[in-house]
């Protein structure tokens, strides 16, 4: 069976864009065990509370929930186990250096299939303060109001 070409999004972490400024994005592979792949192909994963850490020269994703495969057996893995990310050594060094700075975190932004293989987009993020979140919400509201006004004007209502 031939591998599917292209990119197919499987899961996104929308909360990350609300809570963080994304400074840098890095694509990395994931080391998966057994039935995790089948469960992920069904879209049974959650990135909401996940984060990544650099530990002993490896990048690990913590808190990423992959539901157990229903047709699996005793070899199903723990849904919240730490998953190793596949990156080059220079990328790992760079991420370790940057995430060590005050206020920076490594946050998984999305998981997608790329040419039949699971990839994770990891973001180097800086935390938002409360006033930053309020500014973003106000900006979104004004854009929404402008779009509504334009739509109603184009329809001839007014």
How do the helices and strands line up, and which of them pair or pack?
Blueprint: E1 7-12, H1 14-19, E2 20-30, H2 36-41, E3 45-46, E4 51-55, E5 58-62, E6 65-66, E7 83-86, H3 89-99, E8 104-114, E9 117-127, H4 130-155
Antiparallel strand pairs: 1-8, 2-7, 2-9, 3-6, 4-5, 5-7, 8-9
Structural class: alpha+beta
Overall 3D form: globular
CATH class of the largest domain: Mainly Beta
Main β sheet profile: 7 strands, antiparallel
**Percent helix:** 25-40%
Strand arrangement, largest sheet? 1-8-9-2-7-5-4
Series of secondary-structure elements, N-terminal to C-terminal: EHEHEEEEEHEEH
Number of helices: 4
CATH homologous superfamily annotation of the largest domain: Small protein B
Number of domains: 2
- CATH third-level topology of the largest domain: Small Protein B, Chain: A
Unreliable segments of 5+ consecutive residues: none
Evaluate the radius of gyration: 19 Å
Which percent band covers the strand fraction? 35-45%
What is the CATH architecture descriptor of the largest domain? Beta Barrel
Give me the count of strands: 9
Structural write-up:
The chain is an alpha+beta fold. It has 2 domains: 7-127, Small Protein B, Chain: A (Beta Barrel); 129-158. It is 31% helix and 36% strand. It has 4 helices and 9 strands, in the order βαβαβββββαββα. The strands form 2 sheets. Strands 1-8-9-2-7-5-4 form a 7-stranded antiparallel beta sheet. Strand 8 and strand 9 (117-127) form a beta hairpin. The longest helix is centred in the last third of the chain and has 26 residues, at 130-155. It is globular, with a radius of gyration of 19 Å. The N and C termini lie far apart (58 Å).
């Amino acid at each position: 069976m031939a591998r599917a070409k292209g990119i197919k999004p499987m899961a996104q972490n929308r909360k990350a864009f609300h809570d963080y400024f994304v400074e840098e994005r890095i694509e990395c592979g994931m080391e998966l065990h057994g039935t995790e792949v089948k469960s992920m192909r069904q879209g049974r994963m959650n990135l909401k509370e996940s984060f990544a850490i650099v530990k002993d020269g490896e990048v690990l994703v913590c808190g990423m929930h992959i539901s157990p495969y229903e047709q699996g057996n005793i070899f199903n893995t723990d849904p919240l186990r730490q998953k190793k990310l596949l990156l080059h050594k220079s990328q790992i060094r760079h991420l370790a250096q940057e995430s060590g700075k005050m206020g920076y975190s490594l946050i998984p932004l999305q998981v997608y299939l790329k040419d039949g293989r699971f990839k994770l987009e990891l973001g180097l993020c800086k935390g938002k303060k409360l006033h930053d979140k309020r500014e973003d919400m106000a900006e979104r509201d004004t854009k929404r109001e402008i779009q509504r006004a334009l739509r109603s004007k184009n329809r001839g209502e007014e």
